[in-house]
Amino acid sequence: MDDLFPNSPHVEMVVFIEMNMFCTVIFRGVYMIKSIIELLSGLKENGIKDIEKYLCIKHGPTIGDMYEGLTKELINKAIFDNLELEVCSGFIKNSKGDYSRQIDCMIVVGEGEKIPETSKKVYSIDKVIAVIEVKKDLFSDDLASAYNNLLSVKSLSEPTRDMKIDMLEMAYKQIVGNALPNPEQIIELSEELQYTYHALVLEAYLPLRIAFGYDGFKSEESLRKSFVNHIDNMKGKKGGGIVSFPNLIISGEFSLIKTNGMPFALATDSNAWISYGSYNGNPLTLLIELIWTRLYYMYDEISYEIFGEEDKVEGINPFLIARGNANGWIYNVLNAKLAKGDDIWKPNEVTDIEYGIVHLLCNGKDISVFDQGFNDYCEENNTTVNKICKNLNEARITTVENGNLKLLTTNCVCAIYNGKFYVGEDSNGQMTRWLGRVQKI
């Protein structure tokens, strides 16, 4: 199976553009328990110190084994004991009998098949939650090597594993700004949106694919430049579609993250899909959030409470826009000023008219964009229905379906504080906690 359709396996074009669009970080499942990140950071630091004592051995396979062992220890600490999960190395196969390359570290369900006289195992792809390619250093050559190893997993893709539709629904809402279409509606989408839709479906089925380099580029800019060079080299080659990109690339202290709405997304004031971002915070944060979000959607017994109540917004910098068509994938590189650090979640500040509209929708009222009274009221207040719809859709609060405004949120809350109007998602209590914080100031 190719990324989307048989005739679209490659990179068609890479273009550099200046980033001048509105962009908001939107995500689900990022309220991390601070203690787990601190624990893993300490284990990682101590593990590296222990390994460094033996780097004098100068034996590549042994050095690789040490870093793989450390990675397995970190991942074992990050998953849950009661889910029959295992962390191991080995190979992945599909129902056709095709095998992946050797996998350094993978999170799997159940026992698997033990390879005789080794500690490695074989698992069918429907039992694999995540695969991690481990590197002591991750520079340009290492990036290409890790990419190809992870690509061998993607090439086994079979949409046969269980998938909770709500993960796909949430991703599509965040990326596109509309509700997930029914199968019969897909043909009505634009070509670009059809490719985006099919890409997100595959993203929801495939295991997480992660490249983990303990050392690497010394700046976020250098990592971004190296990856651009890599995808530029993929022009016309199989494996250049957006689904082939790893979900996460860690190079020392800097990371690249796929913003596919599972959980991270970057919403813009256009229909463009910002499919990749870069990050200069603790890379273990992204690693755990990816894994925990996938487990949350897979297992009913996992409560959202595992993510805690920190309400931290990861400072993900927009990097690549992806556009699919029958000829391949076009990537626009966003040359934006790179922000440093994370922020605290806050709701969307809206106008009084926008607030009133969302409040009515929250109370079950129907609002047609063609209603003459609605249009007249907007004109009297120096705005338009189109402007209101655009603003609320950029914030991923509402969309328009069949001429009616519809909420995109799961549990929207409206609030007036200090003379200003706010609306925000409260499905995980973030809006409630925000109100508690500001009222104490």
Q: How would you classify the helix and strand content by structural class?
A: alpha+beta
Cα(first) to Cα(last) distance is: 55 Å
Sheet with the most strands: spatial strand order? 1-15-14-12-10-9-8-7-4-3-6-5
Mean pLDDT value:
87
Q: Figure out the total of helices.
A: 11
The tally of domains stands at: 2
Low-confidence stretches: 1-8, 26-32
Report the count of strand segments: 21
CA radius of gyration is 23 Å
Characterize the main sheet.
12 strands, mixed
Q: How would you sum up the global shape? A: globular
Strand content: 25-35%
Percent helix range:
25-40%
Highlighted features:
globular, Arc Repressor Mutant, subunit A, disordered N terminus, 441 residues, 34% helix, 11 helices
Short description:
By secondary structure, the chain is of the alpha+beta class. It is built from 11 helices and 21 strands.
What does this structure look like?
- Residues 57-156 form the DUF6602 domain.
- Pfam families: DUF6602.
- InterPro entries: DUF6602.
- The protein is an alpha+beta fold and 441 residues long.
- It folds into 2 domains: 11-344, no CATH class; 348-440, Arc Repressor Mutant, subunit A (Orthogonal Bundle).
- It contains 11 helices and 21 strands.
- The strands form 5 sheets. Strands 1-15-14-12-10-9-8-7-4-3-6-5 form a 12-stranded mixed beta sheet, with helices on both faces. The chain has a 3-stranded antiparallel beta sheet with strand order 17-21-20, with helices on both faces. A two-stranded antiparallel sheet has the order 2-11.
- α6 links the parallel β8 (208-216) and β9.
- The longest helix is centred in the N-terminal third of the chain and has 19 residues, at 34-52.
- Residues 1-8 and 26-32 have low confidence and may be disordered.
